[in-house]
Design goal:
The chain is of the alpha/beta class. The protein folds into three domains: 31-104 and 211-251, D-Maltodextrin-Binding Protein, domain 2 (3-Layer(aba) Sandwich); 109-207, 3-Layer(aba) Sandwich (D-Maltodextrin-Binding Protein, domain 2), CATH 3.40.190.10; 260-507, 3-Layer(aba) Sandwich (D-Maltodextrin-Binding Protein, domain 2). It contains 18 helices and 22 strands. The protein has helices at residues 2-21, 40-54, 65-75, 86-94, 143-152, 154-162, 170-179, 204-207, 224-235, 240-246, 272-286, 297-307, 379-390, 394-398, 408-417, 427-430, 462-473, 476-481, and strands spanning 31-36, 58-63, 80-83, 98-107, 109-114, 134-137, 165-167, 184-188, 198-201, 211-218, 250-251, 262-268, 289-295, 318-320, 336-350, 370-373, 401-405, 422-426, 437-440, 448-455, 485-486, 493-494. The strands form three sheets. Strands 12, 13, 14, 15, 16, 17, 18, 19, 20, 21 and 22 form an eleven-stranded mixed beta sheet that branches. Strands 2-1-3-10-4-11 form a six-stranded mixed beta sheet, with helices on both faces. Strands 7-6-8-5-9 form a five-stranded mixed beta sheet, with helices on both faces. Strand 12 (262-268), helix 11 (272-286) and strand 13 form a beta-alpha-beta unit. The radius of gyration is 31 Å and the shape is elongated.
Length: 507
């Protein structure tokens, strides 16, 4: 028995020694965040909650936005930059310091005074009175004065000359005013509620200059996915945005919070070659998953209709159609679209064109085996049918259609095996096997599809969808390599205002 107890004790000691020397799991690498001083209180609170919830430490460095920007330009280190105004963010972008951007709050300059406004200050001119002791932030360091200086023009020079004190950050100025060291100051409207003894005087010269405090991922971020995760937390309605609102900031609500969101994308099959690889890169950078369905747009629209409404979790957040004619059916859910790319429709024939097919009319010849896409299932099929009907060729050509598929890719496969003599497809469809085919040009005014990209209006991942669009726009070469041309106008359009030519309208 004694021998057994000794062995048991030795075993226990061994286990304890092993536990003591066992390598611990690597701690989450800390995020380094450079943040405008005016947002200190809510950002500190949000960072604390984020670290507690996720285990990721957040190291915060506060200062005037311009001062921080200078530090970033020199050091080229850090993960996020939270700028107080749009101008500073634009400067950072010009210097290639930042990448993705997520707006957090909206703010504008105001005149701040002690509660009750004992000096009866009502305007910019009031600040110039001899008895008013004025404090300003340094425009070379702090965004609030940089914005104010630009807004006031020559009036700023008079204020700067009159100022009793000029401090490096908006919070320094607000603190002086709260302590009674000065009578008035120009600070952010969002700074005023952080001090019980202050009130704001709105003046039109300043209140019309709305600015956004924005979190931007730094180009120097070592882990973009981790940085973007915290940025999403900062403006998630139930997380950071709620904290900003609690501190009486005018919060810009972002996407619903999820540690690893899933973006649901419906895409026409023609887009697959261009975007499939890009979607993987985007998902890896964002630290998310992208659930993608590629199919004919007729099938995709039917699937959305079957789901009923957008409360279905499988309803797509993003819809990248093959052509604008398949946007109006879902205009309610996707009210705005960007016409991103264009694809040419061609007649694909085997290399050398052994059957001598040169026009759509040639497809009606006896014995020609034609491949067409299904008009009810795909955009390409619908466009092909409409084009043939407009040329009075539909009945004669469709008699020779030995295949009607939902996508052009399937027709190309059949053409490659010799099952077809010709097929109406996108130029993109034959791009991966271009050495085996000839492309016969079709009437230029009808043989073109325009691919619109739309983000669902009520998607919980709307900002994520917009960032996907921005990511695609930065990777133009991927589309061009796949045979697309870039749309000449990338401005958003209203889906219900899309004008289709008469021959293309759904009857």
């Amino acid at each position: 028995m004694r021998k057994f107890l000794i062995l048991l004790c030795l075993a226990a000691v061994t286990v304890l020694l092993w536990l003591a020397t066992k390598p611990s799991a690597p701690a989450e690498a800390p995020l380094t965040v450079f943040c405008a001083a005016g947002l200190k209180k809510p950002v500190e609170e949000i960072a604390t909650a984020y670290e507690k919830e996720t285990g990721t430490p957040v190291q915060l460095q506060f200062g005037g936005t311009s001062t921080l920007l200078t530090q970033l330009r020199v050091a080229k280190q850090g993960d996020l930059f939270i700028a107080a105004d749009d101008g500073a963010l634009a400067d950072a972008k010009k210097q290639d310091l930042t990448r993705e951007e997520l707006r957090l709050v909206q703010q504008w300059p105001v005149i701040a005074v002690a509660k009750g406004n004992p000096k009866k200050i009502t305007s910019i001119e009031s600040l110039l009175a001899a008895e008013v002791k004025l404090a300003l932030a340094n425009p070379e360091a702090a965004s609030v004065s940089k914005v104010t200086k630009k807004a006031l023009g020559a009036k700023w020079d008079a204020l700067a000359a009159k100022a009793a004190v000029m401090k490096p950050t908006v919070m320094d100025v607000a603190a002086d005013l709260s302590l009674g060291s000065v009578d008035a100051a120009i600070i952010w409207n969002s700074t005023v509620p952080q001090y019980d003894k202050l009130e704001a005087i709105e003046v039109p010269e300043l209140s019309s200059h709305k600015e956004h405090a924005t979190a931007a991922i730094l180009a120097s971020a070592k882990d973009a996915a981790a940085a973007l995760r915290f940025a999403r937390y900062l403006n998630a309605p139930e997380k950071g945005a709620a904290t900003f609102a609690k501190h009486r900031f005018e919060a810009v609500k972002g996407d619903a919070w999820s540690l690893r969101p899933d973006l649901v994308l419906y895409s026409g099959g023609v887009n697959r070659l261009a975007i499939e690889g890009l979607l993987k890169k985007f998902a890896a950078r964002e630290g998310i998953s992208v659930t993608t369905t590629f199919n004919g747009c007729g099938i995709l629209c039917a699937a959305m209709k079957t789901m009923g409404d957008t409360s279905n979790p499988k309803y797509p957040d993003v819809y990248y159609a093959c052509d604008i004619c398949f946007v109006p059916p879902v205009a309610k859910q996707f009210p705005e679209a960007v016409l991103l790319t264009e694809a040419e429709i061609i007649l694909a024939v085997p290399k050398g064109n052994p059957k001598g097919i040169h026009t759509l009319a040639d497809l009606a010849r006896e014995g020609i085996k034609v491949g067409l896409c299904n008009a009810e299932q795909s955009t390409l099929g619908y466009l092909t049918q409409a084009m043939l009907k407009s040329m009075n060729l539909w009945d004669s050509v469709s008699k020779n259609a030995s295949a009607q598929s939902p996508t052009g890719d399937l027709l190309v496969n059949q053409l490659r095996t010799g099952s077809l003599d010709a097929a109406v497809v996108y130029l993109n469809n034959i791009q991966p096997q271009i050495e085996h085919f000839d492309a016969v040009k079709l009437p230029a005014d009808k043989a073109k599809a325009i691919q619109p990209f739309a983000v669902r209006q009520d998607s919980p991942h709307r900002q994520l969808g917009q960032r996907l669009l921005a990511f695609l726009l930065k990777n133009r070469e991927s589309f061009e390599q796949a045979g697309f041309t870039w749309s000449p106008n990338l401005n958003p359009i209203q889906s219900d205002k899309i004008e289709l030519p008469e021959w293309l309208k759904q009857k």
